[in-house]
C-alpha cells in the first residue's frame, strides 16, 4: 500500500496542474488589419477603387480589370488587375524563395500563426461575415455557418493533431527486411497553387492555405473573379498574421484575373488544388499534365437526400430545407435531389412547403431576410431554364418563398426558394448541378430503389440518409457511390475536419481536409535504414553476387519459399536448402545470367516526384489508391441525441440568428476556457429567448 500512495499523489497533482494550466489563456498577440477601405460609406466609384494587392508586377494590363459589385445591390466595390503570365510566374518565384525559409520553421511557430488567425476570426466575426455577404450576396447567418465555423474547425484540428500526422510514420519492414527499419517521412512539396470558387470566399481561401502553410509550403491562391474584393481583403488578415510570427512576406500570395491567370499558375507551381466546375477542372488537368504535377479537384455535386418511412418528418423537414437553401443553394455539398419514401411523401411535402413559404429572399444587409442573392446574375437564368425544362416534362411547382422589398433593378440577382414535385431523371434539374435554392422531390418505394436513384448521376460528392433505424441508414449510405456520407444528418462530414473531403466521378478526385488532405501537400518519402547498424549490415548473398553462381536461381527459389512458404514445414525445408546452397563452392562465372531480385519493404509507398511522376503504389498508400475513400459521420448516441437545427437559425431565421452564431463560434473555438464559458451563457440565453422568427422589422448591419 505504501508503494501506491506516492503514485496516487503524483497522479492527482498532475491532474490538478493540467486543470490549472487549462485555466490560463494562451499568450496570443492581436493583429490589426486596416478596414477603412471596406466600410460602406457610399463613396465607392470606379475612380475610388480598392486594390489590396501591391502592384509588384512590371507589365500590368491596365486595360484588363476584374470589376467587383455587390450582387444583392449592384453597388460598385472596385477593380483588381488581371495578372499576366509573366506577373504570375514572378509571384510564384517569390513564393518559392519564401518557402525555402519557411520549410525550416518549427511546429511551434506554425501553431502560433494558426492561433493568431483564430483569435482574429473570433473577435471579428461580424466583419468577416459582412465582407462575404457584400461580395457574394449570402446572409450573415449563412456566412457564419459556411465561412467561420468550418474555418475555425480546421484551425483547431490542425492545432491539436496536425503535427502528429506530419511526423515520420514507422511501418513494418516485412519478412525479407527484418534487419531494417522502415518509415515514411513527409516533406513540404514546395509551392502549392489553388484556384478557388466564389461561393465561400473566406473559407475557400483559408482552407488550402492553412494546410499548405502548416505542412511547410508556400501557396499562391487565385481567387474567383466573382469574389476578388473579399478575397483580397481576407488576404490582408493572413499577411498580418504572417508578419506577427516573423514568417516571410511572400509565403502566401493572392492573385486576381481570368483564365490566362489561372493557366499561368498551373504551369508554375508544384501542386494544384482546384474548386470549381467539371469543365474547368478538365482543362486544369490537361494543363497540369504538361508539368506532371499532382492535382486535387473538387468539382461540385448533385447530392442525394434520402428520407425513409420511419423518420420524424417534422424534424427532418427543417434539416432538408437548410440543406437546400443554405447560402441560396450555392453550396457544393448542398442537397440537390430529394428522395422521399412514398408512405410519408405527402406529409414531408406539407412540412417543407410550410417552411419554404415562410422564407424571404432579399438584400441580406438591408433587412431581415432568410436568404440572400444569387452571386452571378447569369446563373439565375440557368436556374429558371432548369425549372422550365422540368415543368415542360410534367413537373409541378407546389411552393415558393417570397421576395422582400426589392428595387426594380434587383430582379435578376434573386431567385425564390422553390419546391418542385413530379420530377424524374429525364429532367435536366435531376441531372445537372443546379447550385441554387431549388428542392426537387421524388418518391421511392424500396431502399434498393432509393440507392439506384441516388447512384444514377454523373456526380458523386456526397449524400445524406435519414432513417429511424441507424443500421438501415448506414446500410443505404454504404451503397451510394460518393466521397462523403452523413447518416441522419446533412453535410456534417465537412465539420469533422479530421475526415478527408472530396468526391468521385464528375465531382473530382483527390482529397483535402483531414489527414489525407494535409499529407497531400507533402512529398511522401519512403526511407529504409539498418535496424542494428553497424552490427548487421546489408550483404549480397554469395550465389547472386556478380558474377552470378550456377546455383543463383536455385538459391533464389529456395529463399522465396523460406520467406513466404504457406506452411512452417515448407519454410523449414527451403531454409535447409538455402543453407546448403550458401555452403556450396559453385563456380561464380556462369554463362547463364539472371536478374537480381530486389527486396522491398512493401509496407512503404513507392513513387517519385517531378518527371518521375506522382501518386504511390505499394504500402498503405498504394492499397488505398485502389479504393473509393468515403468519409462517413453518424450519431454517436443515437437515438438519444439527434442532429437538430438550433431554433434561432431555423427557417424563417430569428432576429438573433447571427448573434447566436457568433456566441456559438466562441463557445466552440474560444482560446480560453473563460471566453468559452461566457459565450456558452449567451448561447443558452439566446436559445431561451422567445423572439419572433419572422419579423417585419428590418435590421441594418
From TrEMBL:
Keyword Ligase belongs to the record: no
Q: Which residue numbers delimit the Aldehyde dehydrogenase domain?
A: 61-527
Residues at the catalytic site: 298
For this protein, the record's SUPFAM superfamilies field holds: ALDH-like
Signal peptide segment: 1-15
Family membership noted in the UniProt record = Belongs to the aldehyde dehydrogenase family.
Q: What protein name applies here?
A: Aldehyde dehydrogenase domain-containing protein
Q: Which organism is it from?
A: Punica granatum
- UniProt lineage: Eukaryota, Viridiplantae, Streptophyta, Embryophyta, Tracheophyta
Amino acid at each position: 500500500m505504501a508503494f501506491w500512495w506516492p503514485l496516487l499523489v503524483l497522479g492527482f497533482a498532475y491532474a490538478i496542474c493540467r486543470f490549472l494550466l487549462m485555466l490560463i489563456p494562451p499568450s496570443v498577440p492581436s493583429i490589426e488589419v486596416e478596414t477603412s477601405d471596406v466600410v460602406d460609406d457610399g463613396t465607392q466609384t470606379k475612380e475610388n477603387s480598392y486594390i489590396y494587392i501591391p502592384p509588384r508586377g512590371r507589365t500590368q494590363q491596365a486595360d484588363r480589370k476584374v470589376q467587383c459589385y455587390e450582387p444583392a445591390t449592384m453597388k460598385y466595390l472596385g477593380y483588381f488587375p488581371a495578372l499576366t503570365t509573366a506577373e504570375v510566374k514572378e509571384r510564384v518565384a517569390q513564393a518559392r524563395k519564401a518557402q525555402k525559409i519557411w520549410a525550416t520553421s518549427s511546429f511551434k511557430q506554425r501553431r502560433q500563426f494558426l492561433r493568431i488567425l483564430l483569435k482574429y476570426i473570433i473577435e471579428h466575426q461580424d466583419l468577416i461575415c459582412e465582407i462575404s455577404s457584400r461580395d457574394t450576396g449570402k446572409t450573415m447567418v449563412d456566412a457564419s455557418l459556411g465561412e467561420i465555423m468550418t474555418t475555425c474547425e480546421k484551425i483547431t484540428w490542425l492545432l491539436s493533431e496536425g503535427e502528429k500526422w506530419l511526423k515520420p510514420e514507422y511501418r513494418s519492414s516485412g519478412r525479407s527486411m527484418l534487419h531494417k527499419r522502415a518509415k515514411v517521412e513527409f516533406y513540404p512539396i514546395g509551392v502549392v497553387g489553388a484556384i478557388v470558387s466564389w461561393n465561400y470566399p473566406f473559407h475557400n481561401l483559408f482552407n488550402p492555405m492553412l494546410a499548405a502553410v502548416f505542412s511547410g509550403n508556400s501557396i499562391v491562391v487565385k481567387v474567383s473573379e466573382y469574389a476578388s474584393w473579399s478575397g483580397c481583403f481576407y488576404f490582408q488578415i493572413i499577411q498580418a498574421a504572417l508578419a506577427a510570427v516573423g514568417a516571410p512576406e511572400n509565403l502566401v500570395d493572392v492573385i486576381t484575373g481570368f483564365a490566362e491567370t489561372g493557366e499561368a499558375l498551373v504551369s508554375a507551381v508544384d501542386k494544384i488544388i482546384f474548386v470549381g466546375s467539371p469543365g474547368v477542372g478538365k482543362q486544369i488537368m490537361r494543363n497540369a499534365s504538361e508539368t506532371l504535377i499532382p492535382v486535387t479537384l473538387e468539382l461540385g455535386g448533385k447530392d442525394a437526400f434520402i428520407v425513409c418511412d420511419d423518420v420524424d418528418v417534422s424534424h427532418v423537414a427543417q434539416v432538408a430545407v437548410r440543406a437546400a437553401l443554405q447560402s441560396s443553394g450555392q453550396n457544393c455539398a448542398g442537397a440537390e435531389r430529394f428522395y422521399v419514401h412514398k408512405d410519408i411523401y405527402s406529409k414531408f411535402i406539407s412540412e417543407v412547403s410550410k417552411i419554404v413559404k415562410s422564407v424571404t429572399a432579399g438584400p441580406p444587409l438591408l433587412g431581415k431576410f432568410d436568404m440572400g442573392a444569387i452571386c452571378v446574375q447569369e446563373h439565375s437564368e440557368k436556374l429558371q431554364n432548369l425549372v422550365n425544362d422540368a415543368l415542360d416534362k410534367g413537373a409541378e411547382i407546389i411552393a415558393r418563398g417570397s421576395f422582400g422589398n426589392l428595387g426594380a433593378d434587383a430582379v435578376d440577382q434573386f431567385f425564390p426558394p422553390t419546391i418542385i414535385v413530379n420530377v424524374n431523371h429525364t429532367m435536366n434539374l435531376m441531372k445537372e448541378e443546379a447550385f441554387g435554392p431549388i428542392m426537387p422531390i421524388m418518391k421511392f418505394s424500396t431502399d434498393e430503389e432509393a440507392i439506384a436513384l441516388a447512384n444514377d448521376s454523373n456526380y458523386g460528392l456526397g449524400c445524406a440518409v435519414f432513417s429511424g433505424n441507424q443500421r438501415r441508414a448506414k446500410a443505404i449510405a454504404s451503397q451510394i457511390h460518393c466521397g462523403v456520407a452523413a447518416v441522419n444528418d446533412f453535410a456534417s462530414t465537412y465539420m469533422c475536419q479530421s475526415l478527408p473531403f472530396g468526391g468521385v466521378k464528375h465531382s473530382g478526385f483527390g482529397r483535402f481536409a483531414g489527414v489525407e488532405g494535409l499529407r497531400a501537400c507533402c512529398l511522401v518519402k519512403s526511407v529504409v535504414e539498418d535496424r542494428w547498424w553497424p552490427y548487421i549490415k546489408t550483404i549480397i548473398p554469395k550465389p547472386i553476387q556478380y558474377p552470378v553462381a550456377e546455383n543463383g536461381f536455385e538459391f533464389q527459389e529456395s529463399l522465396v519459399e523460406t520467406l513466404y512458404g504457406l506452411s512452417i514445414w515448407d519454410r523449414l525445408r527451403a531454409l535447409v536448402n538455402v543453407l546448403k546452397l550458401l555452403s556450396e563452392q559453385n563456380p561464380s562465372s556462369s554463362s547463364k545470367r539472371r536478374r537480381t531480385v530486389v527486396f522491398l519493404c512493401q509496407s512503404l509507398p513507392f513513387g517519385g516526384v517531378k518527371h518521375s511522376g506522382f501518386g504511390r503504389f505499394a504500402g498503405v498508400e498504394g492499397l488505398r489508391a485502389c479504393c473509393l475513400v468515403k468519409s462517413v459521420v453518424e450519431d454517436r448516441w443515437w437515438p438519444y441525441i439527434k442532429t437538430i437545427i438550433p431554433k434561432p437559425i431555423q427557417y424563417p431565421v430569428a432576429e438573433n440568428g447571427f448573434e447566436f452564431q457568433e456566441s456559438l463560434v466562441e463557445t466552440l473555438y474560444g482560446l480560453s476556457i473563460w471566453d468559452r464559458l461566457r459565450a456558452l451563457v449567451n448561447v443558452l440565453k439566446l436559445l431561451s429567448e422567445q423572439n419572433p422568427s419572422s419579423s417585419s422589422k428590418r435590421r441594418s448591419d
